[in-house]
Specification:
about 750 residues; Deoxyribonuclease I, Chain A; six-stranded mixed β-sheet; catalytic activity; Reverse transcriptase domain-containing protein; Endo/exonu/phosph_ase_sf; about 20% strand; alpha+beta; Endo/exonuclease/phosphatase; 23 helices; DNA/RNA_pol_sf
């Protein structure tokens, strides 16, 4: 096993003139053609390929695009919004630092655009205009060009415009006049479609394309158009050296012996000192047995299914293509087309056999199977390929911190400072005053049962830690015993490493709103939390303190229990002839905004006291977090609110925070929760005219209750559903509800 660390060198940016090879193709559905596009990029040495009409579905349909993308390439895609057709993808080499360009959407055409930075940025846009005439097309296209011309004088506009540029009709003349007014020149002067028309265009300003050629692409009516441009652009030189440790070469017996030889912590040592020595000593031993080494790697993705037979078929395809281009005969065209179909089917068969064998060999290994599934179906992470630095990490950390701070300021402005936190409806007679110290065997089992996730803050890879458990358990037990006995959680175990991910594929990594923070904590901190969570759960269960209709993060509960309960209630109401209104509440950053002081009062109100309460106080206090991206990181930032993301205890504490839902019981509103996701529903006679008004008043009071507890109800994302039999829904009026100043309309019936 190789434990990969941060890359040994940062990305370098090269500025200056670069010749970039472009391709444009209307693919007329990418499904089943991914490997042909893959070969096209490699064979023609293209740096950018603009694809029109991918027909990509909007719901995470990335398999064909992944098949199209060679090693060292990524893509930016825009799936079709609805219906049949359309969809864009721009596949480009990772070394070109690009970012998506946002602009207004238009009904008369669709487009996808990105910006290539440089001393003068270059805007690259691919367009698809449907064949049917649209009176607003020229006005809409003028608006788009106006927006682009403000961003940069260098424009490359490509795409299938479905305008016969070879004819002298009114639309052609008006379109030519439009692009001329922006200094754009159309460079295609030969047919791009099998029927002899010029439909696919390349319009440029500030840039002159060279070596413009067209090539027939098998199975399509549109031709592949290629050209190159020379521009001043920023080019990222990606280093091919990584730092790693050869974990598999470690002699486990000698490694375990070295751990056993470590001096036990002194009985008077603080938990902080014990954890520091634990991390320092284990890291030193690891450096002795598996020092960090530099290694050059290719980063090429393997294609084990591409066998010798496929290689021969590909070579034969190139021969038939050259023959067809040389003679232009129909018989040679048909031979080439039939061979391409055979090659495509052979690839599909080879991949199916390869993946079927892999799945059979990996039976029972869910991690390997999920890794394979993720590789096939998920898009590349553009964030990892964007340029990052310490300044970027600090800016991102500041953004995440400010977001929570701003929510808190808004909530404090509407909150009544004199209002007391309401008590829990049921207070147990027994006290949870201290923790029981777990046995070494219990800790051993907890570690074995835990997932082998490793955080950058861990001194050892978790897989290696589990391999040396008999030697390590005394050390980990000492940390747990010390923390629970002294009521102190060491600061080292309260530091979170945040890795941001894109909220949705194709999002702009420079737009921080499109990023979601994923927190990782040291492995030993999660073991400590599991010890506490187990005892806290037993206490809540034995005293019946869990909210009855809370399915989140509870044993024997899941999203399925929530779904079954809500569905059953709604179906029974429908059978009784009632109309049901279901409201799905959305809370903004709920786990991050809860008040520490209110949380401690909640804990005290359910009789958590003395040593236990002091430990929880230490647990949520003085926490820090930082951003880590590759070898860059931000400065640590204090966490002043919320429960720790990525933790074991965080969700359980959040459930306790929301325990006093007296307001739901007050109005006798049916509800069910999964952590912070709350579904409210009420059923009544469909002719009850006051129902929307009554529900609006209740929701406004619920919003006030949430604000009082420093939780923000996002009214704009709150959804409303009407549920009932077909006849009831047909006769029910259209209505909406108001939550203060926001109107929520029903989505479906």
């Amino acid at each position: 096993m190789l434990a990969h660390l941060a890359r040994s060198a940062d990305h370098m940016i090269k500025h200056g003139n670069s010749t970039i090879n472009f391709g444009l193709l209307n693919i007329c559905s990418l499904t089943g053609k991914g490997h042909l596009v893959h070969d096209l990029l490699s064979d023609h040495k293209l740096n950018f390929l603009c694809l029109n009409e991918t027909w990509q579905h909007p719901n995470n349909d990335f398999i064909s695009l992944n098949n199209s993308t060679p090693p060292e390439f990524v893509y930016i895609c825009k799936p079709r919004e609805s219906g049949r057709g359309v969809g864009f993808a721009i596949i480009h080499q990772k070394q070109w630092k690009v970012s998506p360009v946002s602009a207004t959407s238009f009904h008369s055409f669709e487009y996808s655009a990105l910006q290539l930075p440089g001393s003068t940025p270059t805007i690259i846009c691919t367009v698809y205009r449907p064949p049917k005439p649209h009176k607003d097309f020229l006005n809409n296209f003028t608006a788009l060009l106006t927006h682009f011309s403000i961003l940069s004088p260098n424009l490359i506009i490509t795409g299938d415009f479905n305008i016969h540029m070879d004819e002298n009709n009114l639309l052609t003349r008006d379109f030519t006049s439009c692009i001329d007014s922006f200094g754009l020149k159309q460079h295609i002067n030969f047919p791009t479609h099998s029927k002899g028309h010029i439909l696919d265009l390349v319009c440029c300003s500030g840039i002159t394309p060279a070596q413009c050629i067209a090539s027939s692409f098998p199975l399509l009516d549109h031709k592949l158009f290629m050209f190159n441009v020379t521009i001043k652009a920023s080019k990222t030189l990606i280093p091919r050296n990584i730092a790693l440790r050869k974990i598999n070469n470690i002699n486990l017996d000698a490694f375990s012996s070295a751990i056993s030889d470590l001096q036990p912590a002194h009985t008077t040592s603080s938990p902080e000192d014990i954890v520091f020595n634990y991390n320092f000593n284990l890291n030193s031993i690891l450096n002795t047995f598996a020092p960090i080494k530099q290694r050059s790697v290719s980063f090429n993705r393997s294609a084990p299914w591409f066998n010798f037979d496929l290689h021969c078929l590909k070579s034969e395809g190139h021969r038939l293509e050259r023959l067809f281009k040389k003679t232009g005969l129909t018989i040679h065209k048909d031979l080439y087309k039939n061979h391409v179909l055979h090659y495509k089917d052979s690839i599909h068969t080879a991949k199916s056999v390869c993946y079927s064998n892999f799945i059979s060999w990996s039976e029972g290994n869910s991690k390997t199977l999920f890794s394979l599934f993720s590789k096939i179906t998920k898009p590349p992470d553009l964030l990892l390929n964007s340029m990052v630095s310490s300044d970027y990490c600090n800016s991102l950390m500041s953004f995440f911190t400010s977001k929570i701070s701003n929510i808190h300021q808004q909530l404090h402005a509407t909150r009544d400072p004199l209002s007391e936190v309401e008590p829990i409806l049921t207070t147990p007679s027994h006290l949870f005053s201290s923790f029981s110290l777990p046995s070494v065997t219990e800790i051993l089992n907890l570690i074995r049962e835990s997932k082998s996730f490793t955080c950058q803050l861990d001194p050892l890879p978790t897989v290696l830690l589990k391999a040396c458990l008999p030697s390590l358990v005394p050390l980990t037990s000492t940390i747990i015993y010390s923390s629970l006995s002294t009521r102190v959680v060491p600061a080292t175990l309260k530091t979170a490493c945040i890795t941001p991910i894109l909220k949705k594929p194709g999002a702009d990594p420079t737009n921080f709103d499109d990023l979601r923070p994923i927190s990782k904590l040291p492995f030993i901190s999660k073991i400590l939390e599991k010890v506490v969570a187990s005892q806290l759960h037993s206490y809540l269960s034995s005293h019946n303190l869990y909210e009855q209709f809370q399915s989140g993060f509870r044993p024997q509960h899941s999203t399925e229990t929530a779904l079954v309960k809500i569905t059953n209630d709604l179906l029974m109401a429908a059978d009784s002839g009632h109309l049901s209104i279901l409201v799905s509440l959305d809370l903004s950053a709920a786990f991050d905004t809860i008040s520490h002081s209110i949380l401690l009062k909640r804990l005290a109100s359910i009789s958590i006291c003395h040593t236990s309460l002091a430990w929880f106080t230490s647990y949520i206090s003085d926490r820090t977090q930082f951003i880590q991206l590759k070898s860059h990181s931000s400065s640590p930032s204090p966490v002043t609110a919320g429960v720790p993301q990525g933790s074991v205890l965080g969700p359980l504490l959040f459930i306790i925070y929301l325990l006093p839902r007296y307001i739901f019981h007050k109005y006798n509103i049916d509800f069910h929760c999964y952590a912070d996701d709350t579904q409210l529903y009420i059923s009544s006679n469909p002719n009850a005219s006051l129902l929307p008004i009554s529900l609006s008043n209740r929701l406004s009071e619920i919003r006030s209750w949430l604000s009082q507890n420093l939780l923000e109800l996002n009214s704009n994302k709150t959804e409303l559903l009407l549920i009932g039999t077909a006849s009831v829904l047909k006769n029910s009026p259209n209505f909406s509800i108001n939550i203060d100043d926001t109107t929520v309309h029903h989505l479906y019936r």
